[in-house]
Amino acid sequence: MITVTEYESLGKGKLRVRFDNEAELILYRGEAKQWKLREEAEISEEDYQKLLTEVVGKRAKKRAMHLLECMDRTEKQLRDKLEDGKYPQVCIDEAIAYVRKYHYIDDYRYACTFIRYSQEKMSRLQLKMKLTQKGVPRDVIEKALELGGYSEDKAFTGINGGSTVMTGFCQRKRTNVNFSGLTNIYCAEGFEVAIF
Length: 196
Hints:
- By secondary structure, the protein is an alpha+beta fold.
- It is built from ten helices and four strands; from the N terminus they run βββαβααααααααα.
- About 60% of the residues lie in helices and about 10% in strands.
- The chain has a four-stranded antiparallel β-sheet with strand order 3-2-1-4.
- The termini are far apart.
């Protein structure tokens, strides 16, 4: 038997229920009442597992689906949002497996889409850093950059408003060219010297 050690109201009809097995669940008042949970109440291991999978686990899956309705997310972003909602790790893993099974989350697809929409604004290095911050694995980023059609020339041209600044600058002021200053600026943005 598992005993409820703490029963705390969080407002908006939610309760934090802590058990003696060091687990913590966020439940609605109606769910707690249905399962007869209150401080010092006991629940069997079988009922606890049912509560975890059928109530909290189901809610975690619905929450994951709701989070993916509005925008694509990486697995890490989705996992972080579910952790913020205080779902147990078991329920988070089940929810992630569920949405992955139906291809609602796919880090490779996310990386390809991000690269496609951002390649004219960022260098290869900046794209890698942003995707790494979003939790996309490095091997997936490399694969997406290779197969996703990323072009450093296209990115360099996009950042400079449709034409390369270097050639336009050279044609207008042939005598006063400061290549090292421009080169330093673009290298700081993550572009390779070879494209100049």
